[in-house]
Amino acid sequence: MSKVTKRKHVMNEALWDDYEMPKENQSIVKVLKSKGNNLHEITTPTGEEYLVSMPTKFRKNIWVKRGDYILVEPIPEGDKVKAEIVKIMNKDSIKYYKENNVWPKEFDEKKETSADGDDELFVNTNRKPVMTYSDSDSDSDSSDSDDESDK
């Protein structure tokens, strides 16, 4: 089987266009971070964190990033690595699971927006923050009023 044909079959299997429900031993989890060597740290709806492995057939064909939802199946011999990835969820499968009340309530995305909205901005910790100081606020207010009177 050629590399392209294999990739096509793997992608079709991973995306599962038929949307079947998870089996009893399978669970929906969220990826926290990649640990290398095809291992990913995940969290369950109950808050438990452990490692899962990417099956050989998915490697170099499918990528998982932080925040993705995946379907995993436990492996009996696992000490540190307790499960194996069965399916990577996409928007359509998540929507289908929510419609059928299979989706865990703990994973419902509730975006809390703050007043200033700076919570999700990237902060570069490699550089010192630039601090600007002004003597008083009245200087800037008087300059603004002077500009308006000149017009």
TrEMBL record:
Entry annotated with the keyword Translocase: no
SMART domains named among the record's database cross-references: eIF1a
Biased composition regions of type Acidic residues, renumbered to the chain: 136-151
Keywords attached to this entry: Initiation factor, Protein biosynthesis, RNA-binding
GO terms for cellular component: nucleus
Any matching Pfam family: eIF-1a
GO molecular function, one term: translation initiation factor activity
Residue ranges occupied by any S1-like domain in the UniProt entry: 17-90
Source domain of life: Eukaryota
Disordered as annotated region, ranges: 109-151
Family to which the UniProt record says this protein belongs: Belongs to the EIF1AD family.
Protein name: Probable RNA-binding protein EIF1AD
Gene: HaOG214673
